[in-house]
Amino acid sequence: MQKDFEICQYISEMALKAMLFEVSATPKPGLVDRNNSGAHKDMDFYSFMASSASLAHTFHECAYEGFTFEEDDLKKLLNKIRPIGIKGENKMFCATNKVNTHKGLIFSLGIICAASAYKYKEVKSLSMNVEEICRIIQKMSQGISQQELGDVQKKEKLTYGENLFKKYGIKGIRGEVESGFLTVRKYSLPICKKLMRENKNMNDVLVQVLLHLMSVTEDSNILGRHDVNTLKDVQRMAKEVLNLGGISTKEGRQRIFHMDSEFISKHISPGGSADLLAVTMMLYFLENINS
User: Fold this and answer.
1) What are residue 26's phi and psi, to 5 degrees?
2) Is residue 154 classed as helix, strand or coil in its secondary structure?
3) How far apart are CA 128 and CA 125, in angstroms?
4) How far apart are CA 143 and CA 174, in angstroms?
C-alpha cells in the first residue's frame, strides 16, 4: 500500500512540476508568464499557481487508477479517470473564480498520469520509456475523436472543441492524445532533450521548446479566437525567431518580446502550444528522473 502511494505521489508531482515550469517560462508571446498576463485579462501568473495547486490530488487519483487497473481493455481506464477529471475541473474553477486556466491539461496530464502508473507496474522503474507510455495512451484513447466529434454536423449547440472540428476539421487535444502526443514526440521532446544535454538555462529551454511547438502546432486556441490565417502567421513568426537563434541570441530574444507585444495587442494566445509544452516537460521528467 505504501509503495502504491509513493509511485502515485511521484507521478502526480511530475505533473504539477510540468505545469509550474510551463507558466514560469518567460517571455512567452501572448501567454501568461512572470512578466505579464499575455492576451488574457481574466487570469495572471498567480491564477495559474492557484489552479496548479488545486489539481495535485486530481493527478494523484488518476495515477492511482492506472496503478490499480487490472483489465485488458485500456479504454476502460480512460472511463475510470473521466469522473476524476471532471472533479478536477470543478476544483480548478473554484480556485480561479470560474476562469479556465488548465482544462486541457487536466485531460492531457491526467491521462499521462494513469498510463505511466499502469506502465510502472511492469517496469518497476521511475525512469520510464516515453514511447511505451504513449502506446498505452493510444490504446486508452482509441476512437475518442470519432466517438465525441463524429456527430457534430447534427448538433445545434456545440462545445468549443466541437465547433472547431466542424469549422476546420481540427481534432484538437482529442486528436493529439489519440495519436499518443505525436507532435510532442516528433518535434518538441527531441529538441528538449538536445537542449537539456547542452546544459542550457531551464527557462531558455522552455521558451525555445515553446517556439518549436508554435511553429508546427494546429493551435485550437488561436483558431478559436481568430482564424487559419492568424495561425499561419503565428507559425511563420515562430519559425523566423528560431532562424534567428530563438531566445539564445540577442536578436531572437528581442523578436520574442516584439511578438509578445503584438500578440497582446491582437489578443493572440497560443494556449494549445503552451499545453503541449507542459506535456513535453512531463514526459521528459518521467524519462529522466534526475532532471
Assistant:
1) -145, 135
2) helix
3) 7
4) 9
Q: Looking at residue 237, what is its pLDDT? A: 98
Distance, CA of 100 to CA of 211 (rounded, Å): 23
Q: What does the alpha-carbon distance between residue 176 and residue 185 come to, in Å, rounded to a whole number?
A: 11
Determine the angle formed by the axes of helices 271-287 and 202-216, rounding to 10 degrees: 130
10 Å Cβ neighbour count for 187?
Answer: 18
Is 191 within 8 Å of 208 (Cβ atoms)? Answer: yes
Q: How far apart are CA 143 and CA 145, in angstroms?
A: 6
In this predicted model, what pLDDT tens digit does every residue of 186-201 receive, in sequence order?
A: 999 999 999 999 989 9
Closest CA to 104 of 92, 115, 94: 92
Q: What is the mean pLDDT of residues 196-223?
A: 95
SS3 105: helix
Peptide bond into 27 cis (omega under 30): yes
Q: How many helices and strands, by DSSP H and E, does the chain display?
A: 16, 0
The rounded distance, in Å, linking the Cα atoms of 108 and 273 is 13
